[in-house]
Design goal:
FAD/NAD(P)-binding domain; Flavocytochrome C3, Chain A, domain 1; eight-stranded mixed β-sheet; six-stranded mixed β-sheet; 13 helices; 21 strands
Length: 498
Amino acid sequence: MADSNVAYDADVIVVGAGNAALSAALAANEAGLKVIVLEKAPEHDRGGNTYFTGGAIRFSYKGIDDVLKLVPDMSEAELDVIEVGTYPESKYFEDLMRVTEGMSDQEMANYLVRDSFPTMQWMTKQGVRLVPSWSHQAFKIDGKFRFWGGLCLEAVGGGKGLSDQLFEIALKKEIAVHYATAATKLLVNQSGAVEGVTVKGPDGYRNLYAKSIVLAAGGFEANAEMRARYLGAGWDLAKVRGVRYNTGDAINMALDIGAQSFGHWQGCHAVAWDLNAPPFGNRSITDLYQKHSYPFGLIVNANGERFVDEGADFRNYTYAKYGKQILTQPQRVAYQLFDQKTLHLLREEYRIKEVTMAEADTIEDLAEMLDIDPEGLAATVMEYNAAVQPGEYNPTVLDGVHTEGIEPAKSNWALPFDSPPYQGFGVTCGITFTFGGLRINQRGQVMDTSEEPIKGLYAAGEMVGGLFYNNYAGGAGLMAGSVFGKLAGTSAAVDAQA
């Protein structure tokens, strides 16, 4: 219930300007309300972590007919060579529960799964354009591009394209975006309802008032102190894959007024990131510092030792947890190695000029060039090659081509490493986003420590806890941002009109 004595600057204020935030803003705008978006970054750095994603979105679909509802302009030539299969709700839910070790909040997971396809339809209705993820999620087998791992579509232009599209749509709908304006404090009235936010902008501090506030300002991955405090030793040294602005401010503002913390505060999404990448994301390179084709090669540390099962699962289900494994290795460094049998499978990020790599005709020379212990690497490769079992190699399925008698095993895609010249790529740990955050209810309202909703306050995106634990399913982050952003914006609009 709005306070009639307050002069409101907007009906709904959204804190943040990534995918979740702009989804919330568009949903609130559909109700005909005045919406203000607060973007902490200056305009040239806008978009939050969305800008640095690959743009792939995980949603449930029954087959090509559902996909065509989202990409209706696919050509006959494309239809002739595409094979998307199906991704039913039951499989989506199963994947979420499997990678989170059964910890994902079931109510949140169910809502995400059930609302994924309707939200994709809503996004395209808003004007977001999608395209098959030809280069990231498909391999051509027997003349058909076969999509794997539950992902088949991405935003046109990837994460940068999704961000740019959302801002263009918001501009057309006359949603005001205040750049270089950081929210610093939530304003609470005598009844305990949130009625506004204190911001610091180019002209200093001021208060903005609204009937509903939606927090969607990301996690604390860009805050070295919070990383060390919650994630543990060494995390202050990790590189940040995305923006420098996600420092946990909105989470802390909510906790300061009694919001309930929720989720896996020691967990995060972290990936293999180029060894010589800058401390924060580069807007020209975006997500191309990542190195995600490791299932088709070997991963070793500086001693030449393997330390993970590269073929445990599709990279969609392992890449977000293997990044943190690198952080525990000597010098926080690992090396992805490939021979000529699999080089053609490498994703485009391996071919950019800003890459830490070497090529050599012998294992020992490759080790010398990459600063790996030569004897250690030679022994590892010899042991691995002797453990590889025969089988039918197929990169589009869990092919069962595996090793026996070594630890760690390689469970799929295990081919002898024996076809020079060899290539190696130096990587370190790059953190994407954190898993701990706020608790929300089925309407997207932020809950307090007494299990009551805080009136006037909603949240969405990476700052909401409870969905991801230990690991993450690729593309589920963007989908969760859209699903729960839409939910929060819709609920905020309904309550603003009460």
